[in-house]
Structures are given as structure tokens and as C-alpha cells.
């Protein structure tokens, strides 16, 4: 939603197509964009009247005339309070580290989804939330994308994984709902890896990043001459995914015309590219993701009820991180382990004081934002473990940090004392130990049971008794 007052963005880029795209996206929320084609122009612009009104800068890593990190440092030296976002094709964590140490507020990997770009701009310019610490970085880590990679013991989360794991072995259409950053794409990839189509193509289309007048062509394809500008035949994503899986992200952003065509495909199994005379059948499994509740959109006539009916086979809802705060310690340790494996970084622990602080925040950006916050803290940490002092802006937003565990329990990962200073009940401590083990061993229950020194059946009985997991 646009802010009441226009904000000014400087885009440092020499790619006309990308400049038009970013300018158009930013305009959705009231941003005006000025373009600097090279580093010299960008630096000179800072000293102009228009440059003094800037609210943010976005630069492409390959901006002509200078190294990106050196340019970030120069811009930051001249305007320390100005948020700077870097866009790059590189997924290198080392580059992310260098960019942040140079002063970047965020690091976005191409192709950047519209909602990610807009969220980055929102957060970077939300000054009351001290943006330096809570950017939704899009840095991704390599690794096995399977259900063992999904960390969490909260009942709602385990229930969602159980539904997804069962659905992965079928051919059913799947609808995955959940707020941005809850892990929908990771779940999709885990489902594909566990499915009979694991070796077949996996195509992901972000409906929110494609103009409404192009989305039908992107999904269904078109013939040469089908419309003005159709100079050659285009094969759609559905046909490219024949025999495999097509994922449509942000299905809630799909235009109504495309929704109707997709509903027809799901019902009949055949498509007719734009301008084609005949239709043909495809064998494609469709998984869709939505940040919004589709039932609510149907009620206000923004979503096709026929498409929702076609998607009703399997419904998975990923809970927000604030709804499973008990998983934060296991998630934090998991992310720090992976962060420590990246070039330029090292393994770090995390204290109970820091974990208490993380658990006290409501994480509007969910798991993705937690990962980004830990990544940023790890970049600048000089000690062997992250403490509450490594999250100063988070402390300012929350207020006085929650009381940490007394000396002797710091870093143990399980709080032995309640906020009033008394020992917690043994049942609660035991539940936390089991949650910690499940997170540490990535949900591999046989390993969890072995490490805890109990039988697998005993472990499942305790999960039920302690209310940790309602999925057997």
C-alpha cells in the first residue's frame, strides 16, 4: 500500500529493462525513482538538491565504473543514514558478507520477486524499527532440500509437514498457504524431492512478478502471431513441466482470466496455447503457494471459486514463526551452523540471553527474517557466541531484554529457571530438551531417540504426553 508521501529512490543500474521493472514496482508503493547509469553519476547525484531528498539506494552489483562493495562504502561514507540495497546474480555468501561489511542494508538475488523487493524497501526505510538489523535478506544456503531440513517441533508445524510428506507421494494438486517467509518454497522443494517425479522437471513461476497481460502466455504459451508482438512461438511453463511439477507462487496475485484458464486445465488436463487451433493433454502436477487466505479472496471476488475448488485436494498451512516461538532455539542453532560453513564466516554459538531476546520478537518476516538477522549478527560478531548485545536494534524495539538464564546455564539451550528465578517444572525442561534434540537432529526421530538414550516408541509416547507433537 502506498505511503501518503512520495519517497525518492536512486537506482544505480545501466540495464534499461531492469530499470523499468524496478521503477514500476517501486511506484506501486509511492516511490519515485531516479536512474544513475554509473558510479560517478551516483556519487555526483548525492550532492544535488534531488540527491539530498533520497530515501534509499538500490544498486546492481555490475554497475559500471566501480566495484560494488567499494561503491557501497563510498556512498555510505557520504550519506551514513541512507539505506543501500544491492542486487546481484551471485548467491555467494562471501559477497553478502562483504556487501554488509561495506554498509549494505540488504542483499537481493536476481531474479528478485516483487514482494521481496518491496518488503526490502519497506523495512529499510521504516526508521522506527532500526533497519540495520532486521532486513529480509534473500541469501540462500545450499544443502539438501528434504523434510529433514525442515526444523521445528511445534504441533502445527509438524502437522503441516505430515500432510505435505503424505501428499508428496501422491499426484494430487497441493495448496500451500502461509505468510511470506514461513518456508513455502523450501517445503515445495522437499515435496518434489520426496515425490515419484523427483527426477522430472520442477518449474517455479512467481505470479506476482509477471505483468497481468503476460501471465497467460507464460503459463500456457502462445503461437507466432497470436497477438501484437508475438514474433515467435513461445512454450509455456506448463508444457515445459510436462511429466514433472509446476509450482505457481503467489497464486493470489494471478489475474482472474488466468485463474479461469488454470482451473480449466486442472479439471480437464489439457491446454490450448494462445492462438493455437487445438488443445493437447499434459501430465503435470501443480503445486500452488499463497501468502493470503484464498477463502477470504473468494468472498471479495478476487479469486475464482472454480480454481479454489480445483485446488482443494490437499491444503497445507505453514504457521507463522510467532505461532511456534518454541522452535526459535533449534532454528537459530541450525542457521548458525550453516552460516558458519560459509566463506568468510566461522561457527558461532548463541547464549540463552540472546535466545530469550529472539523469542520475545514477533518476527513479521518469519523464518526468513530470523535467518537474515542471525546472518547479520554473525558477520559483525567478534566473540565465540552471539549474545543479546549482538542484537542492539532488536533490544531497542522490544525494550528491556527478557531475563537470561542464571550463570551456569548460559549457552545450554534449555532454560532451567523461570522469569521469577525459580526452577522450572521437570516436565517443561524435558519437553524443551526433546524439542532441542529434534531440531538439532533435523527431525530424524531414530537418531533423536538414540541420542536421548530412549526407545523410539518411548520418544513418541513422550511427544504425546508432553504435547510436543500431535502427529504420530
UniProtKB/TrEMBL annotation:
BP term (GO), one: regulation of DNA-templated transcription
Q: Which UniProt keywords apply?
A: Activator, ATP-binding, Cytoplasm, DNA-binding, Nitrogen fixation, Nucleotide-binding, Phosphoprotein, Repressor, Transcription, Transcription regulation, Two-component regulatory system
* The Sigma-54 factor interaction domain, residue ranges: 150-379
From what organism does this protein derive? Answer: Novosphingobium sediminis
> Do you know which SMART domains this protein is assigned to?
AAA, REC
Question: What protein am I looking at?
Answer: DNA-binding transcriptional regulator NtrC
User: Which taxonomic lineage does the organism of this UniProt entry have?
Assistant: Bacteria, Pseudomonadati, Pseudomonadota, Alphaproteobacteria, Sphingomonadales
Q: Which Gene3D superfamilies match?
A: 1.10.8.60, 3.40.50.2300, Homeodomain-like, P-loop containing nucleotide triphosphate hydrolases
One GO molecular-function entry:
sequence-specific DNA binding
Amino acid at each position: 500500500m502506498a505511503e501518503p508521501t512520495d519517497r525518492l529512490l536512486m537506482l544505480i543500474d545501466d540495464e534499461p529493462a531492469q530499470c523499468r521493472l524496478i521503477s514500476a514496482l517501486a511506484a506501486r508503493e509511492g516511490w519515485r525513482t531516479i536512474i544513475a547509469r554509473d558510479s560517478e553519476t551516483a556519487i555526483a547525484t548525492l550532492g544535488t538538491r534531488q540527491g539530498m531528498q533520497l530515501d534509499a539506494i538500490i544498486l546492481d552489483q555490475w554497475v559500471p565504473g566501480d566495484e560494488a562493495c567499494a561503491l557501497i562504502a563510498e556512498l555510505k561514507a557520504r550519506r551514513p543514514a541512507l539505506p543501500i540495497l544491492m542486487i546481484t546474480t551471485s548467491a555467494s555468501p562471501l559477497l553478502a558478507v562483504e556487501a554488509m561489511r561495506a554498509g549494505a542494508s540488504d542483499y537481493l538475488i536476481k531474479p528478485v520477486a516483487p514482494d521481496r523487493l518491496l518488503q526490502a524497501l519497506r523495512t529499510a526505510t521504516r526508521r522506527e524499527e532500526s533497519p540495520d538489523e532486521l532486513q529480509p535478506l534473500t541469501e540462500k544456503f545450499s544443502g539438501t532440500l528434504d523434510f529433514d531440513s525442515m526444523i521445528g517441533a511445534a504441533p502445527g508445524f509438524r502437522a503441516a509437514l505430515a500432510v505435505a510428506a503424505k501428499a508428496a507421494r501422491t499426484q494430487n494438486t497441493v495448496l500451500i498457504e502461509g505468510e511470506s517467509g514461513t518456508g513455502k518454497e523450501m517445503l515445495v522443494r522437499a515435496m518434489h524431492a520426496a515425490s515419484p517425479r523427483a527426477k522430472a522437471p520442477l518449474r517455479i513461476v512467481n505470479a506476482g512478478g509477471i505483468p497481468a497481460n503476460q501471465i497467460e502466455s507464460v503459463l500456457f504459451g502462445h503461437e507466432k502471431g497470436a497477438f501484437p508482438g508475438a514474433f515467435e512461438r513461445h512454450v509455456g511453463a506448463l508444457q515445459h513441466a510436462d511429466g514433472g511439477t509446476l509450482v505457481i507462487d503467489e497464486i493470489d496475485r494471478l489475474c482472474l482470466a488466468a485463474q479461469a484458464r488454470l482451473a480449466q486445465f486442472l479439471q480437464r488436463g489439457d491446454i490450448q496455447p494462445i492462438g493455437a487451433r487445438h488443445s493437447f493433454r499434459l501430465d503435470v502436477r501443480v503445486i500452488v503457494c499463497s501468502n493470503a487466505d484464498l477463502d477470504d479472496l473468494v468472498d471479495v471476488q478476487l479469486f475464482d471459486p472454480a480454481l479454489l475448488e480445483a485446488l482443494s485436494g490437499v491444503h497445507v498451512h505453514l504457521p507463522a514463526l510467532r505461532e511456534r516461538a518454541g522452535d526459535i532455539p533449534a532454528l537459530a542453532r541450525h542457521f548458525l551452523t550453516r552460516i558458519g560453513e560459509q566463506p568468510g564466516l566461522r561457527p558461532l554459538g548463541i547464549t540463552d540471553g540472546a535466545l530469550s531476546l529472539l523469542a520475545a520478537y514477533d518476527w513479521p518476516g518469519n523464518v526468513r527474517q530470523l535467518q537474515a538477522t542471525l546472518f547479520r549478527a554473525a558477520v559483525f560478531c567478534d566473540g565465540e557466541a552471539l549474545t543479546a548485545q549482538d542484537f542492539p536494534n532488536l533490544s531497542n524495539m522490544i525494550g528491556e531484554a527478557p531475563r537470561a538464564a542464571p550463570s551456569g546455564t548460559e549457552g545450554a539451550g534449555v532454560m532451567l529457571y523461570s522469569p521469577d528465578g525459580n526452577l522450572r517444572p521437570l516436565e517443561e525442561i524435558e519437553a524443551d530438551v526433546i524439542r532441542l534434540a529434534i531440531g538439532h537432529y533435523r527431525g530424524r526421530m531414530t537418531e533423536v531417540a538414540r541420542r536421548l538414550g530412549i526407545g523410539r516408541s518411548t520418544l513418541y509416547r513422550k511427544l504425546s504426553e508432553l504435547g510436543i507433537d500431535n502427529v504420530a
